[in-house]
Design brief:
alpha/beta; 3-stranded antiparallel sheet; 13 helices; 13 strands
């Protein structure tokens, strides 16, 4: 059924403006019948951050910004869904057009700017589906006009702790002016200290709330050293590597569209984001698991990301070009790899190639 849906919907959605097509996709998901998803191969189960994931494939933040369809996504076969980025107050984001397809490159450029319905509305939606289970993380960020951005993150932790499976502290979007400055070591240290303090403050009533840090792929290795050191010292539960890039690889074929401002995602990001996963993995030294994001468009790409150091992976842009059938394709390829190599769990191959990848020439 999913293959038939992809065959019909992918060409159709391509006729629409990218943001209108995204809106149609969200509305379509909300109409899906509540069917039970097929059980996953037990070998694909992953335990990370104190949570049990039925499979390692997650929907990345940015697709379901305001928690309109997390359960529909789980029913399609995702092992987890990350909603957001959510900000304390609703905001419309940057002016349109702000989302662009690079079809020849299977890439996307966006400068959305944290458009979302705001914490109050998103909290109501998540509270209404809390009894359904499933792993739904909440990606949190600061309002563009906030006088105290760190306070925004603290407020969101306190607000969503009862309903969030985990939190992602997003300090790496390039589309909110000044947000990436929060990755500077001394600022990040204060931010994470206050976020963890807020998490501990509400733990008694809200239970455990793992805190993950999402970083940009554009950090220098010296900056990455500092970020991982701060993350380890503040005892975050994990990191997500990586957000979109402001870089533009020389290999891009859609050079005209590539001049649009914003973050680049999709296949052109794969090599850089994978390198950053490996670099982060060797620096973390097993202190916490990683989620790998960026350009995963096949089972082989997913396997490469896992062998670079990712315990879990996330998709988004590749679904625009490959369709929902990609989820099952990746699961099938990963399970086949485990069977062929005599492995029982994906954890046995996490980071197997990290050292070798860090020795390669830097992606350009």
């Amino acid at each position: 059924m999913i293959r038939a849906f992809d065959a019909f919907s992918l060409p159709l959605l391509r006729w629409f403006d990218p943001e209108d097509a995204h809106r149609l996709a969200i509305q379509g998901l909300r109409l899906l019948p509540p069917v039970r998803p097929r059980a996953d191969d037990a070998r694909l189960a992953v335990r990370a951050f104190g949570l049990n994931f039925p499979n390692p494939i997650g929907m990345a933040a940015g697709f379901d910004k305001s928690a309109e369809a997390p359960d529909a996504l789980l029913r399609l076969g995702f092992g987890f869904v990350e909603i957001g980025t959510v900000t304390p107050k609703s905001q419309v984001g940057n002016p349109r057009p702000r989302l662009f397809r690079l079809e020849r490159d299977e890439g996307v450029i966006n400068r959305m700017g944290f458009n979302n319905d705001g914490a109050e509305t998103v909290l109501r939606r998540l509270a209404g589906r809390a009894h359904l289970g499933g792993i739904v993380g909440v990606n949190v960020g600061a309002n563009k006009d906030s006088p105290d951005r760190v306070a925004d993150y603290v407020k969101l932790i306190e607000t969503f702790a009862p309903v969030a499976s985990y939190f992602t502290v997003n300090v790496s979007s390039p589309n909110t002016p000044g947000l990436r400055n929060l990755q500077q070591a001394h600022i990040l240290d204060d931010l994470l200290a206050r976020v963890i303090e807020a998490r501990e403050r509400v733990r008694a009533k809200a239970g455990d709330s793992p805190v993950l840090l999402k970083i940009a792929p554009d950090l220098s290795l010296a900056e990455l050293d500092e970020v991982v050191h701060v993350a380890r010292s503040r005892r975050v539960d994990g990191m997500i590597v990586a957000n979109t890039t402001v870089g533009r690889p020389a290999t891009l074929r859609a050079q005209g569209r590539a001049k649009e401002a914003g973050g680049l995602s999709g296949r052109p990001l794969f090599r850089l984001s994978t390198r950053m996963v490996a670099e982060t993995y060797v620096r973390a030294e097993g202190a916490f698991p990683l989620i790998g994001v960026g350009g995963i468009n096949s089972g082989g790409a997913a396997l490469t990301k896992i062998r670079a150091g990712a315990s879990l992976i996330q998709l988004y842009s590749s679904l625009i070009y490959k369709g929902l059938g990609l989820i099952d394709d990746i699961k099938t390829d990963l399970a086949s790899t485990l069977l062929r190599t005599g492995r029982e769990q994906l954890s046995e191959i996490v980071g197997a190639d990290a050292a070798a990848i860090t020795a390669e020439d830097w992606p350009v």
